């Protein structure tokens, strides 16, 4: 696939690396706790078990790696953001973690029986290259699984956050242009790309999850400090725009209030392929 001229590849990659290193601790406490809800489904999809050599690409702060270790897999993790890797190493000293690039994996071909990537694919400026690299380092007979957020049309949390920004704020900001956020939230696109990179027995499943908060007022505050691009978009609004966005998010989140707090539904696509 030729490069997309609308994407600032190097600038976007550096932005993601710097921002995720900056928010690593808050990310670990908020986003990683939410996305870990699908860890077992991902590990089931690749047959993670005792003795299986598994690579966790875009491992973040290591929640998925830790879940794989509980199954007694032999785990290697990789992430582009240094502070993410530092937290992962503390969480799971039994695993081997590397600071590196998903689009240029520092591993020999055919080294792993499984490769997983939980919500990392949307952060790669060249996702096909990252998928090709995962294919390369897999052993024949190995499995690859990645996840991505579904679009706002079927994802209430994303609809609330992005809808509030689009209605009351501005998306015309001085940020490095990146790939489409929800490209792989479409079943057909997941299938097409995996097959194009050589995978067979491709399956795509939608998985539910929930974002939980103590109060509606907590939603925007946690998103701003624990995400890279979305948090930056919110932080770059004017004071009036931020106030209006926050009020809209609070009002919307109030619709999901329960006796124990706020529970906002969301979902991801889980895409799985087999290397013949």
From TrEMBL:
The keyword DNA repair appears for this protein: no
Residues in coiled coil: none
CDD domains: AdoMet_MTases (cd02440)
Molecular function GO labels: S-adenosylmethionine-dependent methyltransferase activity
Residue ranges constituting the Methyltransferase type domain according to the UniProt record: 55-146
Domain of life of the native organism: Bacteria
InterPro entries: Methyltransf_11, SAM-dependent_MTases_sf
Pfam families, per the entry: Methyltransf_11 (PF08241)
Keyword match Protease: no
Protein name as catalogued: Ubiqui/menaqui biosynthesis C-methylase UbiE
Origin organism lineage: Bacteria, Bacillati, Cyanobacteriota, Cyanophyceae, Nostocales
């Amino acid at each position: 696939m030729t490069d997309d001229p609308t994407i600032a590849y190097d600038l976007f990659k550096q932005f993601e690396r710097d921002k995720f290193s900056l928010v690593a601790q808050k990310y670990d406490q908020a986003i990683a706790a939410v996305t870990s809800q699908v860890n077992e489904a991902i590990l089931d999809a690749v047959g993670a078990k005792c003795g299986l050599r598994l690579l966790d690409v875009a491992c973040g702060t290591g929640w998925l790696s830790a879940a794989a270790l509980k199954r007694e897999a032999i785990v290697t993790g990789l992430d582009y953001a240094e502070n993410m890797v530092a937290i992962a190493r503390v969480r799971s000293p039994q695993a081997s973690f590397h600071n590196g690039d998903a689009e240029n994996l520092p591993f020999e071909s055919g080294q792993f029986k499984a490769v997983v990537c939980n919500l990392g694919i949307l952060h790669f400026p060249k996702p096909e290259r990252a998928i090709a690299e995962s294919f390369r380092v897999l052993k024949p007979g190995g499995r690859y699984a990645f996840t991505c957020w579904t679009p706002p049309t079927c994802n209430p949390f994303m609809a609330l956050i992005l809808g509030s920004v689009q209605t009351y704020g501005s998306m015309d900001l001085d940020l490095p242009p990146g790939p489409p956020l929800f490209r792989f939230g479409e079943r057909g696109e997941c299938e097409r790309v995996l097959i194009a990179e050589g995978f067979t027995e491709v399956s795509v499943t939608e998985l539910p999850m929930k974002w939980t908060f103590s109060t509606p007022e907590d939603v925007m505050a946690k998103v701003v400090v624990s995400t890279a691009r979305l948090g930056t978009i919110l932080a770059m609004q004017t004071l009036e725009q931020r106030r209006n966005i926050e009020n809209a998010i609070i009002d919307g989140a109030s619709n999901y209030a329960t006796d124990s707090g706020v529970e906002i539904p969301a979902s991801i696509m889980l895409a799985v392929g087999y290397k013949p």
